[in-house]
Amino acid sequence: MRNFVLETYFSKWEFSARHHMTASDAQSMSVGDLLDLADLPADALNGLHLGYTETWGAPDLQQAIAGTYDKMKPENVLCFAGAEEGVYAAMRVLLDQEDHAIVVVPNYQAAETLPLDICAVTGVPLDAENNWALDLDDIHAAIRPNTKLVSVCFPNNPTGKIIPASDYAELIEICRKHGLYLFSDEVYRLVELDETKRIVQAADAYEKGLSLNVMSKAYGLPGLRIGWIATQDTDVLQQLERYKHYLSICNSAPSERLAVIALSVRDKILAKNRALMQANVKKLDGFFADYPDLFDWVHPDGSCIAYPKYTGRGSVEAFCEVLVEEEGVLLLPASIYRSELMETPPDRFRIGFGRANIDEGLTAFRAFLDRKNNELTP
Ligand SMILES: Cc1ncc(COP(=O)(O)O)c(C=O)c1O
User: Fold this and answer.
1) Does 241 contact ligand 1 (Cβ within 6 A)?
2) What are the chain's domains?
3) pTM, rounded to two decimals
4) Staple 297 to which of 95, 288, 344, 350, CB 3.0 to 4.6 Å?
5) Which residue's CA lies nearest to atom 15 of ligand 1?
6) Other CB atoms within 10 A of residue 346 CB
């Protein structure tokens, strides 16, 4: 399998860099904080049985997840170990060697490398020069007689782009007309910076839509490793369940309990995370305004990551490398988002704004820029 360059880079730096300024999740919390938020006593999990659980996910977890959709019932939900296992299983189940898939670029790498391991894949660009717009004509043009699925992610990783709701509706119509599955990675849904830009969930809106989601991002609970796929297509879900027997078999029992608890107070968690992201993104607006010669800052539509342009001297790779080595500030340079499907902008970097400690990271970042100003300014 192809090297997952983002995760490999994180293996090196995620837990050693002093300032993780490129995190893709909201601020996390302790078990104690979560129990407090839900008004539960500290010993609430003491009676928890540590046996296997249902492959589908505990029934009350399926129910709680179904409640986050308009039309889903518990039987429309299959849980996975994180979103990642869901992407893997879905690509293996939906695609065969003779099929063809269409994937939006740039993307979270698994979105293209997993289908590429199976079949022919065509990339469709988000236009870097036009606020990451998606041209639906490109989707039309990419469709072949053997196309089986279209894979999208809005809010997008790494750009934060959300396409207009009318375009998303048109995308669904294109998929419907050609009988294509729409694999929709919705892990950043609910943390739109402008909530009027929120789009519908594919599983609600389309009979062949698969909605991928997880407790990791908007809820800030990646350590639970609870993800899921929701879809009206229960045949596909059955096949996915069979596939899961060869992967994690079932989810972690403590994680399932904690996910049910978190979903019971989801409004409180989301309100807290959104408020933090709104405050943090304003800090980034101010920060980048101070360095107009070095960066083109693009305010994202949603998610807690953005993908600005580095306009200083030298490559963005060299810039990010010296920044993390000298100042301990971790960013993800454009090479991490290089696609096998098409050219991608070479001068971007991913910065995150979901975490609580952004001030320390920005102070270190600023110290670096001020020290290196002469070397970096073009
Ligand atoms: C767009 C996207 N999809 C899926 C995943 C995988 O999520 P998880 O780590 O919860 O498995 C990520 C993680 O960064 C992501 O950004």
Assistant:
1) no
2) 5-30+267-372 (3.90.1150.10), 43-264 (3.40.640.10)
3) 0.97
4) 288
5) 108
6) 15
